[in-house]
Write a structure and sequence with these properties.
Helices cover about 65% and strands about 0% of the residues. Strands 1-2 form a two-stranded antiparallel sheet. With about 325 residues, the protein is mainly alpha-helical. The termini are close together. About 35% of the residues are buried. Helix 1 crosses helix 4 and helix 1 packs antiparallel against helix 7. It is built from 15 helices and 2 strands.
Length: about 325
């Protein structure tokens, strides 16, 4: 739900420019934010989100696009901006403490998004809106309601509470997966001859070691120039393969847990209530050779000793998926 929901939040931003101004989100922190500053800013976003959510849940009067959907839009802006900022700080903050604070904030904002997606009062308010005449807004309204339904809004109170817990666990694993990638860089060695085509200033900044070899890191400052300009296909292929192994094997276990937790969430929702034939709301296991292998390897972990061919397939699959960003990996499961 986490990523599909953010897409809807971005889509909602077209509804009301006035709603954006009314939210009055403070300017982003500049310079090198500390963990304390990030925590303080995160507290503001969570408090603002809570206030707007409760106000929308208890709102009275006739539901409409101009009032109800605009209020939903304001709430979505706060959650989306807070989560986006936290993810940004997690990636670029200068200290480990600040990055950890941002990672925790990212999880808190994801939880705020789930609270909204499982709010029955807000769902009922939006559902009561008379379908608008213009097609784009009508389509958007339909998709907002569908997102609520996929999140598990039809569950009873206890079911929605459990869905909240499971979704929060998925979000934490998502964030852990992403946070591990820059923590697990890898290197390759090359020669000046192999770097033919790469700008000279890049080569000048990468002096050979005592063995005459040049060390390249899988950081984007090395990776992008080499993949863009190097004429050697062997170098580009070797660097690409090493780049895909970032955070492996650390992320292997995280990814397995993530797949299994998403499977648990999807199975729980489909078991607790029927989706009235809404296929898009049912968990669909991946069908490609890579993702199917990932799912099977994760699901079989600890259950039985696979045969040699199965072990080989798992061994080949895990490195290829262990360093993917969640935007790529999320296709493995709902």
């Amino acid at each position: 739900m986490r990523y599909g929901y953010w897409v809807l939040l971005l889509g909602s931003s077209v509804l009301s420019g006035a709603a954006h101004a009314a939210t009055a989100i403070p300017p982003i922190i500049t310079g090198s934010p500390t963990a304390a500053q990030i925590n303080q800013r995160c507290n503001w976003f969570v408090a603002r989100s809570t206030t707007l959510r409760k106000a929308l849940e208890t709102s009275k009067g006739k539901a409409s696009v101009a009032t109800t959907l605009a209020a939903y839009d304001k709430l979505g802006e706060v959650i989306g901006d807070g989560g986006g900022e936290a993810g940004f700080y997690r990636e670029v903050a200068m200290t480990a403490a600040a990055r950890t604070a941002a990672q925790k904030c990212e999880n808190r904002m994801a939880s705020e998004g789930t609270k909204l997606s499982l709010s029955r009062p807000i769902y009922e308010r939006i559902k009561a809106i008379k379908p608008p005449a213009d097609e784009p807004t009508r389509l958007y309204l339909t998709r907002v309601l569908s997102a609520f339904e996929r999140a598990g809004i039809a569950l009873d109170d206890a079911g929605r509470a459990k869905a909240q817990v499971l979704t929060d666990e998925v979000s934490k694993l998502n964030t852990e997966f992403e946070a591990n990638i820059p923590k697990g860089p890898r290197t390759i060695t090359t020669t000046a001859a192999e770097l033919d085509g790469v700008p000279q200033d890049f080569i000048d900044a990468h002096k050979p070691g005592p063995d005459g070899k040049i060390t390249l890191r899988t950081d984007s400052t090395d990776y992008v120039p080499v993949l863009t300009y190097a004429k050697s296909p062997e170098l580009r292929q070797r660097f690409y393969r090493e780049y895909q192994l970032r955070a492996h094997p650390t992320n292997d276990e995280v990814l397995r847990n993530l797949i299994n937790k998403r499977d648990e969430l999807a199975n729980f929702k489909s078991k607790e209530f029927k989706f009235a034939g809404n296929v898009s709301a049912v968990a669909v296991k991946p069908t490609s050779s890579i993702t199917s292998s990932a799912w099977a390897c994760a699901s079989a972990s600890g259950k039985r000793r696979p045969n040699r061919a199965y072990q080989r397939r798992c061994a080949l699959t895990a490195p290829r998926i262990a360093s993917r960003t969640v935007s790529e990996e999320k296709m493995l499961a709902i």
